[in-house]
Amino acid sequence: MNIRENIPIKDLTTMRLGGPARFVIAIEHAEECTEAFGFVKEKGLPFYFLGAGANSLGLDTGFDGALILNQIKGIEILQESENVLIVKAGGGEIWDDFVQFVVSKNFSGVEAMAKIPGTVGAAPVQNIGAYGQEAKDTLESVEVYDSLLDEYKEIMAKDCDFAYRHSIFNSGKDKGRYFILSATFKFTEHQLKQPFYNSLQAYLDEHHIADYSPKSVYDAVAEIRKNKLPDPAKEASAGSFFKNIILDEPPKNKDIPYRETKDGKFKVNTGWLLENAGLKGKTFHGFKVSDKAALILINESGETYEDLQRAVTEIQKIIKDKYGLALEPEPVKIEAD
Q1: Of 2, 15, 70, 103, which residue is 20 to 30 A from 117 by alpha carbon distance?
Q2: Tens digits of per-residue pLDDT, 235-271?
């Protein structure tokens, strides 16, 4: 366990915003949790869990508590046969490294989530997803440290209350309670099933790709993301900034494209809304709506969270006025619950 003091949050998050965190505690082994949380409780500090910082936003005031970094590594095969692959990965493993490992075994289930920034531990929190695949589709269970009861436990996927970008880990009474030590996934398929999302199908058609193996789909998605999404190491960004909009019925405006979900909801492509509202490439208070993918907000010259909030408010108003729909940011603020 490593404890540091007064560390700028902007250095720990990909949007590169935020004042100092009073303490930053890095956990590399599960058994360190007892000592780490003992330190936090002894000092009466609020705490916040952080992985790669790709989906978290630092506030200008910083965080007068402890940021607890998940740096638990390791990928372990629990079961492998021709038809089944069960893998456990540490919460601090880089998500794309885990995806590549599964792809190398020729199993389908996460390949469409290629190159999503972040860690394995963050995947269940947000129930990350892309091109029709979501973390919940293959997740079996997570091992956690329960900060409330000071004990280690396993939570099965069925008990995680998964929905679009939703879980018990980021919503409700247990939000921020569980530190995810590892996640176990089960894979039984060898090929992503059609129909594919339009942008993925368009890429495959354009490049005359009829091979839908995990490696082929991974390579296609990686190339799509490379051409559309900024590299967080080079451009400050939190990835897809706005969530797609989930409706109980199709949008009243017949021009707005949507996709019916597995649970009978209707998902509106927020990127389409932003692009067709003429926002692509425009800059608000130092934050640019990417000219390659309108869902991406790039920090070109914004210096404060307040700058970001003003930009987001203006963008939300434009979409609300034009389409009557409310945009919701995907990244979360680093603050005490």
Answers
A1: 2
A2: 999 988 999 999 999 999 989 999 888 788 999 999 9
257 and 322: one domain? yes
Residue numbers of the domain that contains 243: 229-333
Instruction: Please say if 22 is a catalytic residue.
Output: no
Give the span between the Cα atoms of 308 and 284, in whole angstroms.
8
User: Residue holding tokens 């000219």?
Assistant: 291
Known catalytic membership, residue 225: no
Q: Which of 16, 134, 165, 182 is catalytic?
A: 165
**pTM of the predicted structure, to 2 decimals:** 0.91
In a domain, 137, yes or no: yes
> What stretch of H or E contains 246?
strand 245-247
Estimate the crossing angle of helix 214-228 against helix 95-104, to 10 degrees: 150
pLDDT per position as a tens digit, 120-155: 999 999 999 999 899 999 999 999 999 999 999 999
CA distance 233 to 244: 25
Q: Does residue 303 carry a catalytic annotation?
A: no
The one catalytic residue among 108, 182, 237, 240: 240
The β-bridge partners of 129 are: 134
246 lies in the same domain as 302: yes
Peptide bond into 257 cis (omega under 30): no
Residue among 93, 111, 134, 330 flagged as catalytic? 330
175 found inside a domain: yes
